[in-house]
Structure formats: C-alpha cells, structure tokens
Amino acid sequence: MVPRRPRDDRRRASSTYDALLNATVEQLNEAGESEIRLENILAAADCSPSSLYHHFGNLRGLLDEAQIVRFSQTLSERTAVFNEAIQEIRSRDALIEFCAEQIEILVTGENGPLARSRRVDALGSTYMRPDFAKRIGEVQAESCAQLAAALRVPQLRGLIDESVDLYAV
C-alpha cells in the first residue's frame, strides 16, 4: 500500500500541477504550440523539470493537458451562459430568438473567432494521434450532453417537439 502524503504535500503538488498547466495554457494562447519552450514554462511556473516529469511524464503530456484545458474552456464558457439563460425561456418565439442570438454570438461575437481558433489549435494537436483525439472527443461529447440536457427543459415545456434528438441540435 502506498503511504498517503501529508495534506500540505498534496496541496503543494496540486499547486505545482496547476502552475505548470496555467503557464503552458498562457503560452499556448500567446504564441501557439510551435513556439513553446520548456525553459519558459518552467520559469513562468517557478518549477523544476522534475516537477513536469512527475506530473505530466514529459513535455508532450503537459502540452496535451493544456490543449484539453483550452478546448474545454472555450466550450464551457458559452455552455454555462446558454444553460443558465435557457431555463428562463417560456415561449417558442423566445426560444427561436434566443437560439438565433446565441448563434450570432458564436459566429460574430467578441470572443467567437478567438475561441474557435483555440479549439482548432487543440484539434490540430490530434493529427495522427488517435488516443489524444479520443480525449478531445470525450470533452466535446460532454459539452454536447450538457447542451442537450439544457435543451431538455424547453422540450419538456413543449417548446421543442419530443421527436427532436437534442444531441442533433
């Protein structure tokens, strides 16, 4: 049996993990994956190479986790807003108007192009890497499940026909 770490050691490990991940996400957002330098990440996170290897195995492991975070963030930000707002809709006309507004925000909104480019960047990291593509796919599937669950509320109110597959919306 592996001895449990004292609580402070677990907290320190978690903060080291987060520091490495946050520094990598920030650098990916600023310059893209091709410009990532291990020395810069370690300096920004104030961590040693052994911490990176302990938590992520290697630089590729860290980059993969950072790309998952970026992909997830771009989905979860809009999903949270959508899920909260759709709970208040009480008419089919309001639902249609709301969905049209959401699509417009996604396409032309202030952060739409940036969010799309970050998702595309993360998707580009899956090229010829089926295991990583599966992980990204799982994040996307979870986002779709959350949206389908949110749409179930207006469907139960009769605003969306029961025959509509909410995952297809």
Descriptive notes:
This protein is mainly alpha-helical and 169 residues long. The protein has 2 domains: 1-57, Arc Repressor Mutant, subunit A (Orthogonal Bundle); 64-169, no CATH class. The protein is 75% helix and 0% strand. The chain has helices spanning 7-31, 38-45, 49-56, 59-86, 92-108, 112-124, 130-156. It is elongated, with a radius of gyration of 20 Å. The N and C termini lie far apart (48 Å). Mean pLDDT is 91; it is low at 1-7.
What's the number of helices? 7
In the predicted model, the low-confidence regions spanning at least 5 consecutive residues are 1-7
**Oligomer class:** single chain
**Whole-Å distance between the termini?**
48 Å
Structural class: mainly alpha
Percent of residues in beta strands: under 5%
Helical amount: over 70%
Topology, please?
Blueprint: H1 7-31, H2 38-45, H3 49-56, H4 59-86, H5 92-108, H6 112-124, H7 130-156
Please tag this protein with its features.
7 helices, 0% strand, 2 domains, disordered N terminus, Arc Repressor Mutant, subunit A
Tell me briefly what this model is.
The protein has 169 residues and is mainly alpha-helical. It has 7 helices and no strands. The longest helix is centred in the middle third of the chain and has 28 residues, at 59-86.
